[in-house]
Amino acid sequence: MIEMLDALFQGFRRRNPMALPEFVLHAESGTVTADDDVEGILFELGEELRTRGVPFALVKSTPQDSDLRPRVRALHMVQELGGKRPENGREPCIEADPWKGGGRQYGHYTFPRSKLLSTIEDVVKEQNGQADPAESLRELNSRGWRPTGTHWASRLRDAAKDASKTLPALLIAVVAVLIADRPWYVTLGVVAAVLAAVVTLSVLPGKAPVFLGLRREIRWFLGTTYLNQGPRAERSEGRTWRLLHLWPPGSIRQRLGAVMPDIRDSGLLDNAEPTAANEDAQRRHLQLRVHALREDLRDAHSAWAPDLRGRKRPTPPVLMLPGADTDNGRVELIKAISDIRSIRSELDPLLVIAAVRQANIGDLHRSVTARRSAGSFPRSVAELPDWYADWNRSRRVNQSPSLEGSTLPWVLRVPLPDALLRQPDLGVGSLRRTTLSPGRPRWTWLWSLPALVLLLVAAGLGAGLRDAELGKEYCVGGLGGTNRDSERVPVGDSADTECVGVATGTVTFPVAREVQGLIRQANEAIGDADYVTIVYAGPLSGPTGELVKGVEELRGAYLAQVARNEESPVKLRILVANGGADMYSQRIMARHVVDLAGRDTSIVGVVGLGRDMTDSDKVQEMFREAELPVVSSTNSGTFLAQYPNFFGLAATDKWQNDQLALVARQLSAKPSEERAVVLARDPGKSHDRYTREQKKFGRRMLEAARYQVEVLPDYDLENGKPVLDSQIADICRGGDAPLAVYFAGRSEDVTPLMNGITATPGCDDQPIAVLAGDDLSKAGFATKQSRVAGNVTLYHLTLTALKQSANGSVFYDRLANVPAEAIKDFGLSPDETHESERLADGQTALTHDAVEVLYRAATLDGKPRGRAEAWANLRRTDVTGLATGRINFTVAHLDGTRDGYAVSLVKVANPGSGDYERTVLCSRASGDTRRLTVRECPVEPIG
């Protein structure tokens, strides 16, 4: 027998589902001792199955309640096999812990269909079969369609379990709320309200649970074609769409009308004696119960269930029936299982092993007898034994309806000879005994709750790490959403990072938060109107609360935007891009701008880029390839004029030094006898090309003025601070201080230079003229942000001449019309004039003009144009009345440069009174092509 079971277990493992016989063990002889020995063999098989961990249920050998009818006993066995507890103090007929396997068994067997029938039976018994289906339906609703559903706590638990099946829908609702950008508490409120409504509606007295139709036992009860037989059933009631009639109940009432009369008429619940009137009803009642048990077991072994439970249960559950005879109902149960299997086409996984007394074998007539042969066992695991093949062929034939007489095709009789009963050999310890483990296959642990927990933990850790990684990589990044138009980059060699890229979505650059907020509000106010988009690109990183160059420029962009959105039918949308501190990361910024422009065709160009860096040529090439014109406000790089898409408002480094030559020639009557030095910042670490260009053209200017020019080694930066010790020592060596120092550095480096000159002998008492380019216009001498030594006169340029261009400029009118609610965040007063120190460096004015010029080119004739048209229109731009004067790109030279840049020559001195004297020596508004003269720009000689 062990080998026969092993053969079935092997086949079941590979062929689930497969046809499984009902083994009937009996003695060949008819002695009482032989029958007892057969029963003993059955118990030995049970112990062997228990040892192997095979799930099985064992019916008690001594029947209880001898006054019960055989079919009633069979019904009680099926009820207990389906999870129902004995009623009215009746002793159970099944041994404790049925269907329990070993430690490697997957989960516990559940019997929802059997429990549904138990609930219906309880209602029929309480109503004594007198109630109509409608009244029975109300009673079932009050019980929640569960055997224990009369208690409110049970109904509440069932309602919560049913409501949990709506979690996918709730997740969709949560996602919808999140997409709608609702607060988190609104999302939680929606979920809680839905769950509360579902639970409340499900526990109302007399009402069916809201999601009753989602229960698998209800779907089976409505869908099984077994109940479509008979005059009470409708042919179409098993259709899927009938599930929609659960509220109010539709086809479920018809199903109850078909089932409850059979339960009532059978009398099995009342131990009624079988008669001609109730014989058929008793058979239908018992077969329905067996059918529900089979369906529960089939569902428990479903190979393609979401939890793959059928593959995790490689052996069939075994029902063991010792001492089966006609009186204890076990023969009736064997017949009922065979009958329902013959009626239904589905294969179930139940394996029955019964020990039948010889006297009752006649009740199992026309069943197949297993033949014994030496070759009855499979020669390989891919084969099934001969005895199984013989039985399976006979089963298919004996199920034919044309055969006469009663047949039990699913029963396989196994006669045991007296010799085997005297010396039983079950195959235990046999060399042919298989080593097949009945436990679940190891690979199925990969698809299990522990594996899912590990996976969720790993996924949670991975998600957390990924969320943190995205948060470090992007300005706004995380699993909840990542804005890839900007990213975080390291600041120098430190561990700090800064946000670089285009501020879309919720990205904000801290130092420009207020002005950026005003621009975002102006963008949102555009609505559905036509618009063009201009990207402002500048340095918007630095200590929070510190006024950086980019914020000043951004103010000018906002002025132009507000004015244009009030005056023009085509609105102006501005996107803000940050190139990092001092534009060190402008290539990263440019990449994001180009990527965004590829997705947003409304972007017509870029303004800003006001700092000349060593990679400015590469950045300009990126924009040229993207067909984006660039109108730069303060970038003085001479070489940039060669790019056809570059339009600069700032005077080039070469042109600036041509103007500074006026000062250099007047400092001494004999410049050839005077010493002059050129001092510049090392561009290696700072990537600053401006200082390199200023150094080159400053040296040429001094040489052209016939000075004895000495170029000092470039000074380095350490932690952002200039290191000037050796350079100052060279400047002041031997008391031979130079007459002129050309400072090709940045405005933030001028104070350390002045401190060194003051503190070094040989320089502290000598008059020195320091010449510098436009960057020193940001030094803030009026507010003493930078220092000037007492023996030093500083000459530098600014890129505007606001006094000369103030007459007729729209700039100040626009400044006066800034919305009152925006003044605080804007940072400038509506009363500012061309004499205001906050406008003196020209950053705000130049960016205003750059935005205005590009906007006009992109909206020629009052229609929004593309970037290619904007580029072409810039070549034909000639605009007057701007903050810096007239912008005329039609007069550009072949090399891209032009005459008529705005410029002011400024003198700054320290008279020792506590305030610096700042004097504009001479100036030209933009568009004025007249050259500056010595007469206009007089300088007192110091040597």
Main β-sheet, spatial strand arrangement:
7-8-10-9-11-12-13
Q: Number of helical runs?
A: 30
Q: What ranges have pLDDT less than 50 throughout 5 or more consecutive residues?
A: 230-248, 374-381, 427-436
Q: What integer value in Å does the Rg equal?
A: 48 Å
**Total number of beta strands:** 24
Mean pLDDT level: 85
Biggest sheet details: 7 strands, mixed
**Structural class determined from secondary elements:** alpha/beta
Strand-residue proportion: 5-15%
N-to-C CA distance: 123 Å
Helix content: 25-40%
**What is the chains' assembly state?**
single chain
* Shape, principal axes of CA atoms: elongated
Give structural notes.
It is a single chain. The protein contains 30 helices and 24 strands. Residues 230-248, 374-381 and 427-436 have low confidence and may be disordered. The protein is an alpha/beta fold. Strands 7-8-10-9-11-12-13 form a seven-stranded mixed beta sheet, sandwiched between helices. The termini are far apart. Helix 10 (251-266) packs across helix 11 (279-300), helix 18 crosses helix 29 and helix 21 packs parallel to helix 23 (689-704). Helix 14 (386-398) links the parallel strand 5 (368-369) and strand 6.
